[in-house]
Design brief:
Strand content: 35-45%
Number of helices: 4
Order of helices and strands: EEEEEEHEHEEEEEEHEHEEEEEEEEE
Shape: globular
Mean pLDDT: 79
CATH architecture of the domain at 24-232: 4-Layer Sandwich
Number of strands: 23
Low-confidence stretches: 3-28, 236-264
């Protein structure tokens, strides 16, 4: 059995921040952790259950990730069904949920649950529904071959769209709390298509994933009038029932493949490790008011005292003299 997954946020060259204690995913109907690993690869931690989605070894060293209790594969393309990654997180008790095309490859040994579009199942007490995922303007993904999935964790319904365009079936998914929509050409959606899909699905929180070199700023502009929180990029996000305040536009341009862009839970302290001579760490509220500033001198670990700040959502800004990055900070006491 692998060791527990450690959360370390690499924020930019020279600086990393991590919790003073290990990440704890507490029990409860609306508490879970979301790991957006890259490309279409996701991982969820919920109620002592690990769910991996489309693991892809190009994106991560899966030897460092916890084993899968449930493995969701949307379709048989090699960047979604990658046995190199799967063999590192598969155990005798892992259940693979997949399409018939994936099963027909005969490369997976173990428990397989094949779902066609519209089928539902409950695996390890977690409801999973397969929904259509296909192209209408190209032949990359034929109708009826691939799946999207709706996974219910407690009272939250999470839509993982898979490789798809803005298809009519998105109008009838029901209440979606969190949606993952792809936006990479020519295989999935343009920013305009992704914006239309988001308006169909109407999630409270929208993750754009599998977006390659697409124009993410255009998507933000197209959805600027929508009441949804938009996130994109590799991330580790700790989800709870508590909704954050609206984030000012000045804090939304935090897209980078070099930065973990979403919240990590923190108590009274953070440990900041720097490998540069100097760094400036500042904490702002969501209105942009400066609450705390720390000058860190000398390489090594530095403790940041968060005790003066109450529980809530904040912005952590980091500057090492040559780079400045912004990061969400969730403080839970």
């Amino acid at each position: 059995m692998k060791t527990n997954f450690a959360l370390t946020l690499v924020l930019f060259a020279g600086i990393s921040i991590r919790n003073i204690s290990a990440v704890s995913v507490t029990t409860g109907p609306d508490t879970f952790a979301i790991h957006s690993i890259g490309h279409a690869s996701l991982m969820f931690e919920y109620s002592n259950t690990i769910i991996h989605v489309d693991p892809y070894a190009v994106q991560a060293d899966y030897d460092q990730y916890p084993d899968a209790d449930i493995l969701l594969v949307t379709h048989a393309h090699s960047d979604h069904y990658d046995m190199n990654a799967i063999t590192k997180i598969k155990t005798d008790s892992t259940t693979l949920i997949c399409t018939q095309e994936v099963k027909n490859k005969n490369t997976y040994t173990g428990t397989i649950n094949v779902l066609a579009n519209g089928d539902s199942t409950i695996v390890k007490n977690i409801p999973v529904k397969a929904v259509p995922a296909y192209n209408t303007s190209s032949s990359f993904h034929a109708k009826g071959v691939g799946n999207g999935y709706i996974v219910t964790l407690g009272e939250k319904r999470i839509y993982i769209a898979g490789d798809t365009e803005n298809i009519p079936e998105m109008d009838n998914l029901g209440k979606i709390d969190i949606a993952f929509l792809p936006m990479n050409l020519p295989y999935t959606m343009t920013p305009e298509m992704a914006a239309d899909a988001a308006k169909k699905v109407k999630p409270d929180i929208l993750y754009i994933y599998h977006f390659g070199n697409s124009d993410t700023a255009m998507l933000r502009n197209l959805l600027s009038d929508q009441d949804m929180e938009i996130r994109m990029g590799k991330s580790v996000y700790y989800e709870s029932a508590v909704r954050k305040q609206e984030v000012p536009a000045s804090f939304q341009n935090i897209e980078s493949d070099r930065i973990t862009t979403y919240p990590n839970p923190a108590g009274d302290h953070l440990i900041c490790h720097i490998s540069v001579p100097f760094a400036l760490i500042s904490v702002y509220d969501l209105k942009g008011q400066l609450l705390l500033k720390n000058e860190l001198n000398g390489e090594g670990d530095h403790t940041i005292d968060l005790s003066p700040i109450t529980s809530g959502a904040y912005i952590l800004r980091m500057n090492d003299g040559s780079n400045e990055m912004e990061e969400w900070l969730i403080i839970q006491k």
